[in-house]
Design a protein that fits this description.
By secondary structure, this protein is of the alpha+beta class. The chain has one domain. It has helices at 5-16, 35-42, 46-52, 77-82; strands spanning 20-22, 25-28, 31-33. A three-stranded antiparallel beta sheet has the order 1-2-3. The longest helix is centred in the N-terminal third of the chain and has 12 residues, at 5-16. The chain is globular, with a radius of gyration of 14 Å.
């Protein structure tokens, strides 16, 4: 997070306001909160909010991290990703 202070801002906004980060969005109880509103509150670009959405391994039985790339992912990068501790599967969509 040190390399991405804007992501830390988003995480802080979510924690301070009791927002739940789920696979399909950000929620306050059962009410979905638009990512643009969270971005505005954190003072960051709305795309940063999408990049920050990850499952907390302490709260989700099968946590997932979704990376949004601006271009194609080179095939030789996948084996490198699988060597990262905690990574068991890589899917490219």
């Amino acid at each position: 997070m040190k390399a991405h202070p804007e992501r830390l801002k988003v995480a802080r906004i979510c924690l301070e306001n009791g927002l739940a980060i789920r696979a399909d969005g950000i929620y306050l109880n059962q009410t979905e909160i638009p990512t643009a509103r969270v971005a505005r509150a954190a003072g960051v670009d709305r795309r940063t909010v999408s990049e920050t959405l990850v499952d907390d391994p302490e709260l989700v039985p099968e946590p997932k991290l979704t990376l949004i790339a601006g271009r194609s992912v080179p095939g030789d990068l996948i084996p490198k990703m699988l060597k990262i501790t905690g990574v068991s599967k890589v899917s490219i969509l």
